[in-house]
Amino acid sequence: MRLLPTLALALVLAAPAAAQDAPEPPTPASVVAAAPASDWRAIDPADLLVMTLAPDRDGDARRVVIQLLPAPFSQGWVGNIRTLAKARWWDGTSVYRVVDNWVAQWGDADETKPLPEGLREVPESEYASLPGDSTLQELVADLAAAEYPELFDPYSLGTGHWNGWPFATDQRHVWPVHCYGSVGVARSTDTTGTGAELYAVIGHAPRQLDRNIAVVGRVIEGIEHLSTLPRGKGEAGVYDDEALRVPIVSVRLGNEVPELPQPVFEYLASDSDSFAEYVRVRANRKDAFYKVPAGGIDVCNVQVPIRRVPSE
Amino acid sequence: MRLLPTLALALVLAAPAAAQDAPEPPTPASVVAAAPASDWRAIDPADLLVMTLAPDRDGDARRVVIQLLPAPFSQGWVGNIRTLAKARWWDGTSVYRVVDNWVAQWGDADETKPLPEGLREVPESEYASLPGDSTLQELVADLAAAEYPELFDPYSLGTGHWNGWPFATDQRHVWPVHCYGSVGVARSTDTTGTGAELYAVIGHAPRQLDRNIAVVGRVIEGIEHLSTLPRGKGEAGVYDDEALRVPIVSVRLGNEVPELPQPVFEYLASDSDSFAEYVRVRANRKDAFYKVPAGGIDVCNVQVPIRRVPSE
Fold first, then answer.
1. How far apart are CA A151 and CA A184, in angstroms?
2. Which of A179, A228, A296 lies nearest to residue B154, judging by beta carbons?
3. Helix %, strand %, coil % for chain B, to 5?
4. Is B122 in contact with A118 (CB distance < 8 Å)?
5. Which candidate from B9, B100, B155 shows the least CB-CB separation from A294?
6. How confident is the model at residue B11 (pLDDT cuts 50, 70, 90)?
7. Average pLDDT over residues A113-128
8. Is residue B14 predicted with pLDDT exceeding 90?
9. Strand partners, B65
């Protein structure tokens, strides 16, 4: 655990010796800007959820775009979420709970709306990958080997990124982690939740929820429409006045939104050289503003670059 | 670095063997509720800043209470902030920059308002304690020894709490860390800032700013009046429309607010048994909702308990 900060110290001490007229050190933004097109991966619109809220008080549109977690993770709940979106189940429901430095939560506030048929009851074992899943053995090994040694973690034996998503491992399982913007499945004490009640994290990463609640996606556009909502003053941050609920007009899969063009996003491939450099630079800022590079970074502070592809 | 997660694994494996009819496991809330009065420390109103914003659109009052960092940390800037508050310098300025998952920033948006006399120019060396400060040697040793082994950290050689505040060390210096709610001194590339332009963190802990920007305090009440503000759409998240600026009515030291009673808060002493138990329980949740205790916690997720003392 002492390796990385020592590295950081070395960098600090070395800094004054670095050439004065060397080229400007890279920034995370410059690394992303320099990434070749081949280092970006398209996100299938079918793997997006587009949630349209009622316009705000100024009449401005509010749209939140969520990317769903890829297989093999959390697919029981992700499948339910696809079913719910196709059934237009969320239309007419609301964002009904907002807690500062915690979550914004939506679904059926009264929990009286009948659910569509075909939802799975998902076992707790799906909070993480199954041990021995051969497709994931390499990922377990990669994370445990701390491919990016900057990513020490108090919550696991190793963290890293796979297909553009942050994960952690205990050397047997791999699980998706809760970061700012992560979307998870609200549940009661004795269930794993269906996916009908969802939340987005709007504060410091609540990593204690990892493996205790299903992570099913992340907000990739429009998080501000959730993070700026008034905080609830009722029990557990639920809006005590129903008038405060934020109406959900519709939730559609990205390939089923009526407007064209469909939303197209891409992420910086986490197995690319650009991504590796991006993590290193974020962990060791040496551009002019920074006097002391941190020498490390936590997995949720990496913030995978994702961008909207402009329509032609 | 592998110790703690192994411990976590042990806890998981042991859990089913734990008695079924044992008393309900403690929660962070139950630990705080059970803490004796002697484990709480009063916060001197003179160490608070009370920032009153203009009422919101519904006419509701907006007040933000900030606790200033205690000596010997960041006292150059903290002294400037006291001077600025006594000069009523912030009255009539505004919150003018809000960036999602980053900061809300206030002061003189146009940077034309003359500063009061007597502000210090603070050297970068004050971002952390001076090596050899004898009052802090014990703290350095405590943090480096990882008094709470749950607090592994990718950004330092050790983290922990002192007088109710989160700190990190490289085994020579100790520095206050950036967490959700932390208040810091905005600056340009070539200065350390006066303290006139301040920001509060409203997202995941930006620990890369540690030792690069002065931490001078933390919001202990009313953070929602900053975190829910509209995000700025101008350069670097500055409000591009001046009409969006949120007027600051006044900023006063807590012992100089005109209203009585003065605000009185207290924090759970970080050298108390209650605090140690609180950290352990937060890192190892075993109450009914949690299926897998995390086995660790990052320093910013500890969230030091602070409460307002009801006026008699």
1. 23
2. A296
3. 25, 25, 50
4. no
5. B155
6. very low
7. 94
8. no
9. B50, B221
Rounded to the nearest angstrom, the gap between the alpha carbon of residue A113 and the centroid of all alpha carbons in its chain is 28
CA distances from B82 to B42, B68, B176 (A): 20, 9, 19
pLDDT at B147 over 90: no
Q: Name the phi and psi angles at A144, rounded to 5.
A: -65, -30
Q: Do the chains contact at A204 and B301, CB–CB below 8 Å? A: yes
Q: What DSSP character marks residue B16?
A: G
**β-sheet bridge partners, residue A253:** A49
User: Are B101 and A227 a contacting pair at CB < 8 A?
Assistant: yes
pLDDT band at A23 (very low <50, low <70, confident <90, very high): confident
Sign of the four-CA dihedral A108, A109, A114, A119: positive
Of A48, A101, A100, A79, whose CA–CA distance to A222 is shortest? A48
Give CA–CA dist A78/A100, Å, rounded: 26
B233 touches chain A (CB under 8 A): no
CB A147 within 8 A of CB A272: no
For the cut 50, the answer to whether the pLDDT of residue A19 exceeds it is: no
Structure confidence at residue A312 as a pLDDT band (50, 70, 90): low
Grouping H, G, I as helix, E, B as strand and the rest as coil, residue B238 is strand
Q: Where are the alpha helices (DSSP H) in chain A?
A: 3-14, 28-34, 75-86, 134-144, 224-227, 273-283
Q: Which residue bears the tokens 């769903």? A: A68
pLDDT (tens digit, 9 = 90+) per residue, A163-213? 999 998 887 888 999 999 999 999 999 999 999 999 999 999 999 999 999
pLDDT band at B157 (very low <50, low <70, confident <90, very high): confident
Both structure tokens of A219? 């907000």
For residue B159, name the pLDDT band (cuts at 50, 70, 90).
confident
Buried b (16+ CB within 10 A) or exposed e, B102-123: bbbbbbbbeeeeeeeeebeebe
Give DSSP secondary structure letters for A110-138. TS-SPPPTTPPPPPGGGGSPPTT-HHHHH
**Confidence band for B310, pLDDT divided at 50, 70 and 90:** confident
Q: Which residue type sits at B167? A: F
Say if A71 is an interface residue toward chain B (CB within 8 Å). no
Interface contact B206-A301, CB threshold 8 A: yes
Interface of A with B in 40-59 (CB under 8 A): 57
Strand B215-221 relative to strand A265-268: parallel, antiparallel, unpaired? unpaired
What's the rounded Cα separation, in Å, for the pair A144 and A163?
A: 17
Tell me chain A's radius of gyration from C-alpha atoms. 21
Interface test with A, best of B99, B101, B218, B303 (most A CBs within 10 A): B101
What pLDDT shows up at residue B303?
Answer: 96
Quote the tokens at residue A138.
């390499």
Q: Is A131 left (phi over 0), alpha (psi -120 to 50) or beta?
A: beta
Q: What is the pLDDT of residues A243-293, one digit of tens each?
A: 999 999 999 999 999 877 788 999 999 999 999 999 999 999 999 999 999
